[in-house]
Amino acid sequence: MDGAFCFRNGTQLSKLIDEAGIITRDLDCCNHRPAVASLLRLALPHVNTMPPSENLVNEFGYARQLLHTDPGGRFSVMTLRWMPGACTPIHGHNAWGCVGVLEGEVGCETFAHKTRDTEPGVPEAPCLVSTGKLLAGPGTVATVDPDPCGIHRIFNPTQAPATTLHIYGMNLEAEPEGLNKWYQH
Ligand SMILES: [Fe+2]
Asked: How far does residue 161's CA lie from ligand 1's centre (Å)?
């Protein structure tokens, strides 16, 4: 990153959005995810945004709020609030994604496709196996590739709410339900 991406002087969310707009407009699309992740890593300590209202918390214990969609539809920014005990269903994303922790701690469990052994002549039954868990605190940035890679679930194993900031390479205003592909485990 060069000086154009310096966030040391009081950056707000709007600057992060502006810089993500430049990256997704000017770089080859295969570089968007790593470049936006580097940007988010620099910006995260300086971003100050209100978390989604806890009135929006869903049956899985989290709330999400869309903050911005790029006018060209190349990316969207949203924030999520994770209540203690929250846990998403297992899912993949239909776009690249970058996730940063603003407040509190969240866990992520990753999964991979595996083929179940079956009787001869019976079609193979796909299933998911856990490939690991991690706990992430403020300032941590993680990225995810589009499904079928990057299958995961996010959870809050702590006693305090957590807030995360997400950037996805798709237009979530046009397709508010188009981001996630849900799996049964
Ligand atoms: Fe996710």
From this structure: 17
